[in-house]
TrEMBL record, chain A:
It comes from the Bacteria. It comes from Methylobacterium terricola. This is Uncharacterized protein.
Automatic annotation (TrEMBL), chain B:
Its cofactor is Zn(2+). Belongs to the metallo-beta-lactamase superfamily. It comes from Methylobacterium terricola. Residues 34-262 form the Metallo-beta-lactamase domain. Keywords: Hydrolase, Metal-binding, Zinc. GO terms for molecular function: hydrolase activity; metal ion binding. Coiled coil: none annotated. The keyword Zinc applies. Pfam families: Lactamase_B. This is N-acyl homoserine lactonase family protein. It comes from the Bacteria. SMART domains: Lactamase_B (SM00849).
Amino acid sequence: MSSVSTRWSIIDSATAVHRVECQSLAQDADDGPADAALNGLDDQVVGYGLEARRAYDELKRTIGQVAGLLILAQAGGRRDAFDLPALRRAEAVQEEALDRVRRLAAPARLAAHRQRMLRAAELAGRALRALGDVAIVAGEIDLTQASNDLTRAYAVLQSTSESVFGMTMVDFRHACCTCGAMKR
Amino acid sequence: MSQYSIWVLEYSYVTKYHKSGVIYGAHNQGFVKLPYCYVLIKGNGHVAMVDIGYNNTDYGKHLADKFGVENWHSPREVLAGVGVKPEEIDTVFITHAHFDHFGNVEDFPNAKFFIQEREIAKWTWAMSLPDRLRWMMTAVDPGDIIRGLDLARQKRLTCVSGDLADALPGIDLHVAQDSHTFGSMWVTVRNDAASRTADNWVLAGDLVYVFDNIEGSGANVDVDTLYVPVGLAVGSQENLVMATEAMMKEVDYEARRVIPIHEERLSQRFPSRLMENGLLVTEICLADGETSKVAS
């Protein structure tokens, strides 16, 4: 992925949220992975970061989605939660992320980062597979294995966060409570 | 007879926030201060909160450096302003799943939480969508959903489907579907416990940011005031306006009884105290026998 195409994707998504005059747009245009924050990084690192970000986003969404389904099953009594087509989509996204991480060409100094991403992807996959083995214990749905794997997946993924590449758990640029509040 | 005391507790703020983010369509009208607050409700044997803020460990530095969010203080410090400890909180009503409302569950180890099922279900759905639709994931941290899952496993999370009367005695929950978020919730405190009461207070969450969302200028259409929705809706402006109408009906159209927690001017309508840490405590009402926390 070239830096130019990344810049445009950021601007495109930003304009969908912010008004034309919003200062966030000005910052977005200069503050994505194509900005000065990346100056001084070699191309291999930048290339790794941009591709890793895609996997990070996919895993972040997968983990959030599966956690939501588990909440619906546990607190909402929605035993049908796991039959939703969304679960199939979660599996597809997790597999895509896992493949992407496996294909990542990490510079030597980022090998440990890639390894953590791989671990997060595998744990998310384990959580999804555990949903297929959910048991009913004493009349209650037992989500222990899936919950534990998912929680660990989140913790490992969080440890790979890197704001220079936009790898953050919350995209604050799109948050209502920060819109236009860019520090000058 | 008043059953409950209500305080709005500021825990952080942004000093320069675009007015257009607060008032729909208010372009090029400058900036306002945007306080970040949560609400404490105390009385009738309960200590409850409406929303819980965010965890500064996870977000604080990024928010401070990039967005000018200032002066964050922990719930322990903020609640101390009204003589309460986080461990005393027994009930939390989460109005919606944005990080600054649902981002701090671990600080309340003894609380039971209420959130709309639709809020969880639709965020879950949104996370399954392709990148081109990811705007609908705005401001939600998967980590908060994970922590919500932990609450659920501890049987401390109740997913509410629609309105719920007497979640606590005299405290009702209402849903505003597809408005600010997919399953935003607002809270009514019926302070004399009667089913039809003249002593209702509405805690609006982010369905109303400021007074002007309720009493906006109607000059352009030749009326005194009208409802003007907040600047951000995952759902529709129509649903925001109709939620405002429902809230106003609940307080018999007495606008001061709808409490917007991002309103800088709350202290102009209610007694307040600026604490040593520079954060405001605003006293909305006092239960019988409760002493003021803002009187000097």
